[in-house]
Amino acid sequence: MGIVTLKKTGMHLLMLGTLLALVETAHAIPAFARKYGLPCSACHEAWPMLNNFGQTFKDNGYQLGNGRDAPIYQEPAYWPIMFRATPFWHRESNNRQAVDVAAGNPSSGQVESSVTSSGFDLAGVDLITAGTIYNNISFFVQPFIGNNSITLSQAWARLDNLAGSHWLNLKLGKFELDEPISQERQLILNNTGGVYYNYFFTPPGDKNFFQGLGLPQLGVELLGHSGDDSTRYSVAVVSNSNGQTGLPSNQAYDVYANFNQSFETSWFGRQQVGAYGYVGESPTFFQTSGGSPIPGTGMGNRSFYRLGAYGHWFVNKFDFYTFYLHGSDNVFLGNGVAANQPSSLPIGAVGPVWNGGFIEGHYNPTPRLIFTGRYELDRMSRQANPGIRADSGNLDSWTIGYRWYPIMSPRAGLAWTQEYSRVTNAGAAPLSGKDDTHDSYLMGFDFDF
Amino acid sequence: MNTIRLSHIAVVLVSLVSMAASAQESHIDKLTGNAKHGKGLYQRYCIFCHGTDGDGRGESAPYLNPKPRDFTKAVFKCRSTPSGSLPLDSDLYDTITRGIHASGMPSWKPLLKQERADLVAYIKTFSSSFQEEKPGKAVVIPAEPPSSPESVKRGADLFQSMNCWACHGKDGRGHGPSAATLTDNQGNPITPFDFTSGRSFKCGETDRDMFRDLVTGLDGTPMPSFVGAMSADQRWDVVHYIRTLSDSKKHSVAKNDAKGQ
Question: What is the ipTM score, two decimals?
Fold first, then answer.
């Protein structure tokens, strides 16, 4: 493995880390609990993770359908807004960080060293306002207040039950894709386990503008479901922009679709299976001005896709998600080469192909307590550049944790969480090319009102 | 003699145990609900409105109108059984599945069928009535005759003569002259149903559901049973008339025809 490849891998990991930092957690919405008088546990298996009642409520456009959904039925003072904050203590450890031999002296050379940091921290604050503007018109707006910035995570409006049918609901704006397992609603908060890597995985050296299924996207979505939500579909057309406003890439549109079906079995209750796919095109180069890319002028589009299947299985108070993803990028995206410069492709270059998946289990003995465990992996089956080590980019991650909810009311909720996660990236150590491992431990409060 | 007495006692004991066990279960078609399982579900979904003891005094109850049902009294609005009798398990199951329109009670259809059956079993444990009494038999609902301008006209006349208008208002909007004085069986103010608000009613949305309400009444509310006051045909006439209030598009012709006669 050459130095160039190692640097690329390092850059790739750095980008992934930056991306993960941008993924904001969401949301239990006590504004709904206040509106309807229902506790968190009515809609959440353990907030923020939805149960089937909560998923149906969401799919209905945040409507219970009991004739009390329109704002006119609320006290005039009712304001559908909530916040969520997560103060915590955490410890982060990386076993192969590149460090200067003499601190502060870059010319002294570098070695790989284990680096550990810890302390009290705050992830930022989610503000969420959501609900119904009128019967069958719902909305969702989520600004996120980070440590140095405010971003708009989601903002959309939806026309619900068009033609009086559950099967036709039209959403426009910036929204979370109807993912098999919601990135926004996952239970783990720490830096290592707080993301589903499969949603964001890109192979070593890949320069695809699209950065992940887990990011809210800008576009339009048609969603439909049966009355009890046992059958669901979603089709979305989104700009190839990673949800960034201002048309940063070009005029390309991507398509995402998801379908799932639940079955009620006599012994084990509900079981769900589904399939999904994301197909799109990303630019490989931009028009430039003074050598700098001009936003919105992406050219030389090349294709990519992510496809997969999943299941959600229940056995009494246990439930398991199983998830599989197959991904592929065009050879130009995979090698980060402009499509108008094919001669720059390395000899033997091909489009990268990979497979991944995870299994995540929950034990939920009471509405106030949930234990979580997850094992996730990604495996490269074909590298874009034959010079890259075959297993470079492979990833293994596992997480364990629990959340306890001492406060769970129709007004607010407070959880105590403790988690430990580890991720190992094959061949990602910045100097030696050995496996790189990152550990995270987190404990703290997660509360909303 | 002693042998006979002992056998009688044994029969009584077995019957009591059997009834108690039955009260811990529910039976809806092929489903058997289990109160033990239902308790966990109740704590997750129901407790904040209906209360820990099932007395309708949950944390959210003060803010809800109408108030949540007090299960300890075993008085239920939506039943297929005669007024004053306990509901069938299937009645409670249907209410949980359907929800109660224009109230805080949503449809719990997203729950599994088995879970809903378990909830029914647990709800029955809040009142000893389910151990001491048996539910009434389901009322018989005859086939519905077709709606016609004549039927609607007769229903409109009955709406007047039976004083339905005193609570529901002459236009069916629920603000008749008596409306402001009405209370439920716990003394809470209660609003008569607004028939113009849509096709859904408290206990269902079909014509058969409305017919059944006229037979059984809504126990615990001022809505009485009209089983002795109207014949079956007359009840269908009232149903047809009320439909013209709730579904003006579909029935506008019939309504106009009725007014014209």
Answer: 0.81
